[in-house]
Write a structure and sequence with these properties.
With about 110 residues, the chain is mostly beta strands. Helices cover about 5% and strands about 20% of the residues. The protein has one helix and five strands; from the N terminus they run αβββββ.
Length: about 110
């Protein structure tokens, strides 16, 4: 199991904050910086640090992960494991928020 958890995780998961770019290390010590698309990525599942819901598979890491400041996935493990929250039309921030469907923790944003 790969749990994306670091010193910033509490603020991200519970308060909707954003990890600083480059925080790509899991709680079990695997560093994904620059590794996307390479054969050395271990097979595993990213689970929410709160509640343990399986969210993403390492095999679904996007090629953009290598150049992005954040882990990026092509799809969730199950469409019912994540929820997309559309922004208010009046909001200047038009990003779609992605949350854990079980714990309602903030996971990031969808730029599709």
């Amino acid at each position: 199991t790969l749990v994306a958890c670091n010193e910033h995780s509490k603020g991200v998961l519970l308060d909707g904050q954003t990890d600083p770019p480059g925080c790509k290390m899991t709680s079990n010590g695997h560093d994904f910086r620059g590794a996307a698309g390479q054969a050395d990525i271990p097979a595993g599942v990213f689970v929410c640090a709160i509640g343990g819901l399986p969210l993403f598979a390492s095999t679904d890491l996007s090629p953009m992960t290598g150049s992005s400041g954040w882990l990026t996935f092509t799809r969730p493990i199950g469409i019912d494991h994540v929820t997309h929250i559309e922004p208010d039309k009046e909001s200047p921030d038009q990003r779609v928020e992605v949350i854990d469907a079980r714990s309602f923790c903030h996971l990031g944003h969808y730029f599709g």
